[in-house]
Design brief:
The chain has a 15-stranded antiparallel beta sheet that branches. The chain folds into two domains: 49 residues; 436 residues, Methylamine Dehydrogenase, Chain H (7 Propeller). By secondary structure, it is mostly beta strands. It has two helices and 36 strands. Helix 1 packs antiparallel against helix 2. A hairpin with a 3-residue loop joins strand 27 and strand 28.
Amino acid sequence: MGEPRLNTLLIVCIPVIAVIALVAPLTCTLYEGESPWAVVVVMNCSKRVYGGYLGQDDFYFCGYVYFGGREYTPRPFVAKYSVADGGLEWFKTFEDIKGWSYSVLVAGGRVVVTGLWSRGGFITCLDSSGNLLWGYLTPKQLYGLTALGDAILAYGNGQLILLRLDGEVLRSASLEIKNALGEWSSANICYAVYVDGKIYAVGYGTNIVSTRRGLGSFDGYLICLDESLKVLWAVGFGNENISEYPRYLDVVDDSLYMCGFNQVYEEGRVVSEDIALLEFRADGTPIGGEAIRIGGHGYSVALRIRGGSIYLVGSVSGYGAGSSDFAVIELQKGAGNATLWTIGGGEEEWCSGAVFTEGGILMYGLTRTWINKGGKHPSPMIVYWPLGYVGEVKWNKSDWESIKVKSYKDLKASPYRFIASPLSVRLRTSYFKAWAPNTKEHMFKVIRSIPSIAVTEPKGGGLGTAPSPFSISAVLAAAALATLITVYLVVRRCRR
């Protein structure tokens, strides 16, 4: 009786095992990430976020609060949000400055903030609890910060400042470029990165390579400097009748990738606004670019390359979005198509920047959808999006509509051609005044306030994981092993 039963089992099980063994290597990987979450800062005034920095357990963000009234009264702020606990640790405003903060950087346990005010720019430093340590007022606006080993670089509208975390200024210079019409103007640096001893900076200005004045005259430029702020090379790029607005720069291997947007003009009007991706070699030689047609308005403020995919982050309108939504675009170079995810609530969300994590993207900007819905007062919004997520995210407020995340796979990307030419650049030493908390007259009175926040359910926290090693092939392999064990046990029992 045992042999027929054994033969039957082997006839049934061996083909199953064979099929599993053949299919397992061909299956795709599953993803296990944490849930998406979001935070809105609730205050009875206008607020806007411009800059953000993700630490180990905390997210720092900055911008301005507008307290209203007849007087123009924006005040810069910087805040610390606990990602792990899902709570706002502190929120500080600079009461004596009318302006806003653009960028925040955390290094050596210190929080450095840059921005602008009515007569120029400023840079301040706080400790991890939000207490003021030192500050400077600068003649020109400052837009960003980047770390250079034990020093930091502050940059903006023609201004470069190299300094240490204790406030010691190593060098300060004004940066000017010469355009195609022979005119000198301040270099408007939008973003800069430091890689292998070199600083790469990107910005835009009028008539950098084009000679036609008026609409379509904005062009981009890319500048390379060493650690002492000596200019190594500079190149301008653009097209006639197309305005270039590069906003972000990333260095991957020996290539420089820039993103932003461009506007195409015909007969004195804008006929399209495309998200742009440009690639240069590390020596400034252009490689190529791609333009992604949205069908409405769109821009990108951050990018990251993972494997063979390029991720662009920004905002779009008119493509399944409401007035404007946060947006993520995934594309492969030269593929001709792309995938778009829109993240918003149907009214108006604008993305100011993003931080890429192991398993997703942390985006920040403003919303008009939930606070004072449809009104003029925006509120800061932070959203964590796990890669590939589609669905709805509910708030902890029952009267708020959920955040809707949608996907569109028919986005078109086409080759984008542009001209590039070397630029003349000059540096001049600049001076500015320092202020410290122990002086009788300083401009950085820091006020503590704790606004309320609205969070999504479940409570926001965590930044997800990378694509999990857990995969369908692993499941099938486990199933094959279980089948073999079952066959072995049955065979032993039959032989008894």
